[in-house]
Write a structure and sequence with these properties.
Helix content: 40-55%
Oligomer: single chain
Number of strands: 8
Structural class: alpha+beta
Number of helices: 24
Low-confidence stretches: 1-13, 15-22
Shape: globular
Strand content: 5-15%
Length: 633
C-alpha cells in the first residue's frame, strides 16, 4: 500500500513537472502585447463598462461626481494662470483658498486638463474621458500582469474580473471617485513590473516599477498607503521563491537572495524619487491643514464597517455610505468573481508549481482585506500602531480595493491551462467564463444622469455646491471655525444673478475693513491666482491690511521697487489673531509703495522637485547605458 502511494505521488509529481515545463514554454512563446489578440479582446470587452459614460448628460448625483468636475475646474483656473503643477486652489472654502493639490494626487486631473485644454472637451466630458481611460487601462494592466505567469486565457479572465468587480463599478458609477478609479490602473502595473524585476531582472522592469509606483503615488496617496504593505509582502515572497542556489549552502543562498532583492528595491526607491515633488511636501506640510473635518462626524470610520451579509448581498443602490448597516450602496464582492476564484483554486492547487505560493499570497491578501473592512475588525482599528495604518483608509470599506485586486487574480485560475487550453482563438469554455463574468455584473452597469442643481460649471456654481453639500471647504490649521460663506461668494452669486459672465475677483484684499483715511489713493496694480500687487499710499504711520486668504506656508509678502518691480524687502505675513478665519495680515510701513503677495515654493517643495528632476536624469542615464550594453552584446 505504501509503495502504491509513493508511486502515485511520484507520478503526480512528474505530471506536475511536465505541466510546469509546458506552461513555461508557453509563456516564453507569448507574442508582444500589441500583437496579442486576447489583449485586444480584453480591451474590447470593457465596452459594456464604458457604455454608461457615452450617454448624453452627466451623473451629477453620484457621490463625488461634482467634486471632480470642480477639481478640474480649479486645475484649469491655475493652468490659465500658467501653473501646470498646481498646489493652491484659490476658490475652495468659498474663495479663501486651500492647498488642495499640495496634498491630493493631481495626476487624474492633469489628464482631464489635457482633454479640456488641448482638445476642447467640456469639464464634464473631460472627467468622463478619464473614467473611460481608467477602465480600458486597468483591464490592459491586469491582463499584462497575469499573462506573464498564468497564461493568456487566465489573463483574459483576470482583466474582465477586475473590470466588472462590483467595487470597481461602485467607484465608477456610484462613488464617481476619479482618483481611485485611475489608481486601479497602476495597481496591476506595479505588481507586473515588480514581479518581472525579480523573475527576469532587467533595466526596463526596474524603470517600469519606478514609473508605475510613482504614478500610483501621484494619483492617490491614500490608495498607495493601503497597497504598499501588499506590494512589500509580494516582493519578499517572490525573492524567496525564485532565489536559486538552495543546495550550495546557506551563505550562497543569502547572497543570491540579496541579488534578487536589489532590482525591485531600486525600482521602489526610484519611484519614490520620481514622485518626491509631490509626497515630500504633502507629508511634511500636512500638519498645516485641518484633517479633523475629514475624519470626524459623518466621516468617522467607526460608522462605516461592512456587515458580513453585505459582502454577499446583491442589492445595488446609488446612495451613500451611512453610519450603521443600512448603507444605500453595495459592498459586495461579486458572486461570479468569488465563485471563479474559489473553483479555480480548488481545481488547480495541486497542479500549480512555484505559482502556488503567489496564489496563496493573493488568497490571504483577499481574506485579510475583507476582514479588515468588516465589523469584526473594529478592535484592530483602535490599536495604537496598526490602527493608524488602517485609519488612513478613512472608511473601512475602502480596503475593498485590495480585496478586488486579489480576488481578480484568483479568478484567473479558472482559465489555467489545466482547465482551459492555451489556444490562439476564443474557445467555448473560455467564452462561457467571460460571459459569466460580464453578465454577473451586467445589472450594475448604469449611471443616473441628472442635471446640476447648482447651474452650469462656474465660480457661482462652485460656491452653491460648497454651500449646499458642505464639501470642498477644507481649512488650514489656523482656521478656528470653518466658514459657511464669504464676500467672494457674494460677488460671484451677484454676477450670476445679474445674468452676466461670472468673473474672478480682482483682489482678495478685505476692503470691508480697509482704512481709506490711512491709505488714501491706494489700488490693486496687478492680480492673478498666485500673486497680487497692491499699491499703498499711506501717511506717517504703518498700518495693517488683511487679505481674504487662509494663512498657509508658501504665501510671502515683499516690498517692491516701484520703478523696476524688484523685490527690496520681505515683510512677515501674520495669521489673523482676531476672528476665526486665520486670514493673512501684512503690516506695511509708512509712506507709499508696492506690496507683492505671492505663492511660492517652500523648502520641502523645492527639495522634492530637485529630487524628482535628479531621478529623471538617473533614469535617462540608466536607459542610455542599458541600450549601449544591449548593442554591445
Amino acid at each position: 500500500m505504501a509503495n502504491e502511494l509513493l508511486l502515485a505521488g511520484e507520478m503526480e509529481s512528474e505530471a506536475s513537472s511536465r505541466l510546469e515545463t509546458q506552461r513555461s514554454q508557453m509563456l516564453e512563446a507569448h507574442p508582444p502585447l500589441w500583437r496579442d489578440g486576447f489583449f485586444w479582446l480584453a480591451l474590447g470587452l470593457t465596452i459594456f463598462a464604458v457604455a454608461p459614460f457615452l450617454l448624453p448628460g452627466y451623473f451629477w448625483g453620484a457621490n463625488d461626481a461634482r467634486h471632480h468636475v470642480y477639481f478640474l475646474f480649479e486645475y484649469d483656473r491655475l493652468v490659465q494662470d500658467g501653473v501646470w503643477w498646481p498646489r493652491w486652489s484659490p476658490d475652495f472654502a468659498f474663495g479663501y483658498g486651500y492647498p488642495f493639490f499640495n496634498i491630493y494626487g493631481p495626476f487624474s486631473h492633469f489628464l482631464g486638463e489635457l482633454f479640456h485644454h488641448f482638445l476642447g472637451f467640456s469639464f464634464t466630458d473631460a472627467v468622463e474621458a478619464v473614467f473611460v481611460i481608467s477602465i480600458g487601462a486597468s483591464a490592459g494592466a491586469m491582463y499584462a500582469f497575469v499573462r506573464s505567469w498564468l497564461g493568456r486565457p487566465a489573463a483574459l479572465l483576470a482583466a474582465l474580473a477586475y473590470t466588472y468587480a462590483p467595487y470597481h463599478l461602485l467607484n465608477l458609477y456610484v462613488r464617481a471617485n476619479l482618483a481611485e478609479s485611475m489608481a486601479f490602473v497602476w495597481l496591476p502595473l506595479v505588481l507586473w513590473t515588480a514581479r518581472q524585476s525579480v523573475v527576469r531582472p532587467a533595466y526596463r522592469w526596474v524603470a517600469g516599477l519606478a514609473i508605475s509606483y510613482a504614478g500610483l503615488m501621484l494619483t492617490s496617496n491614500l490608495v498607495i498607503v493601503l497597497f504598499t504593505p501588499l506590494l512589500a509582502g509580494y516582493v519578499l515572497l517572490l525573492t524567496i521563491v525564485y532565489t536559486g542556489a538552495r543546495g550550495e549552502g546557506r551563505g550562497a543562498w543569502v547572497r543570491a537572495w540579496i541579488r534578487k532583492c536589489i532590482p525591485p528595491l531600486l525600482g521602489g526607491l526610484t519611484g519614490l524619487g520620481l514622485s518626491a515633488v509631490f509626497w515630500l511636501p504633502a507629508f511634511t506640510e500636512r500638519q498645516y491643514v485641518r484633517v479633523d473635518q475629514w475624519f470626524d462626524g459623518r466621516y468617522a470610520y467607526r460608522g462605516h464597517f461592512v456587515e458580513w451579509h453585505q459582502f454577499f448581498s446583491p442589492v445595488w443602490g446609488f446612495g451613500a455610505s451611512v453610519v450603521g448597516p443600512d448603507d444605500t450602496i453595495s459592498f459586495q464582492i461579486g458572486a461570479a468573481i468569488a465563485a471563479l476564484a474559489l473553483l479555480g483554486v480548488l481545481f488547480t492547487w495541486r497542479l500549480l508549481g512555484q505559482e502556488r505560493w503567489e496564489i496563496g499570497f493573493f488568497g490571504v491578501g483577499a481574506l485579510a482585506a475583507i476582514f479588515i473592512a468588516s465589523v469584526s475588525a473594529a478592535a484592530l482599528w483602535e490599536a495604537p500602531l496598526l490602527g493608524g495604518l488602517l485609519q488612513s483608509a478613512q472608511f473601512p470599506w475602502r480596503w475593498l480595493v485590495i480585496a478586488t485586486l486579489c480576488t481578480s487574480v484568483l479568478a484567473a485560475l479558472a482559465g489555467h491551462p489545466s482547465i482551459v487550453a492555451e489556444t490562439q482563438r476564443l474557445s467555448l469554455p473560455l467564452l462561457a467564463l467571460t460571459t459569466t463574468l460580464i453578465l454577473g455584473s451586467y445589472p450594475y452597469l448604469r449611471v443616473e444622469i441628472r442635471e446640476p442643481v447648482e447651474g452650469p460649471v462656474s465660480l457661482a456654481g462652485l460656491m452653491r455646491f460648497q454651500q449646499s453639500a458642505d464639501e470642498m471647504t477644507g481649512s488650514t490649521a489656523w482656521v478656528k471655525e470653518i466658514p459657511t460663506w464669504s464676500p467672494m461668494a457674494d460677488y460671484y452669486i451677484s454676477q450670476d444673478q445679474a445674468g452676466g459672465p461670472v468673473e474672478p475677483v480682482d483682489t482678495k484684499l478685505d476692503y470691508s475693513i480697509f482704512d481709506y483715511e490711512t491709505f488714501g489713493a491706494s489700488s490693486v496694480a496687478h492680480s492673478t491666482i498666485s500673486e497680487e500687487i497692491f499699491y499703498y499710499n499711506g501717511r506717517q504711520t504703518s498700518a495693517t491690511i488683511v487679505f481674504n486668504h487662509f494663512y498657509y506656508p508658501g504665501w510671502n509678502a515683499y516690498l517692491l521697487d516701484g520703478e523696476h518691480g524688484q523685490r527690496i524687502q520681505q515683510i512677515p505675513i501674520i495669521p489673523e489673531e482676531e476672528g476665526t478665519l486665520g486670514r493673512m495680515t501684512v503690516d506695511v510701513p509708512p509712506g507709499s509703495g508696492y506690496l507683492l503677495l505671492v505663492y511660492e515654493d517652500t523648502p520641502p517643495r523645492t527639495i522634492g522637485g530637485i529630487i524628482s528632476l535628479l531621478t529623471v536624469g538617473l533614469l535617462i542615464a540608466g536607459g542610455g547605458a542599458a541600450i549601449v550594453k544591449r548593442r554591445q552584446c
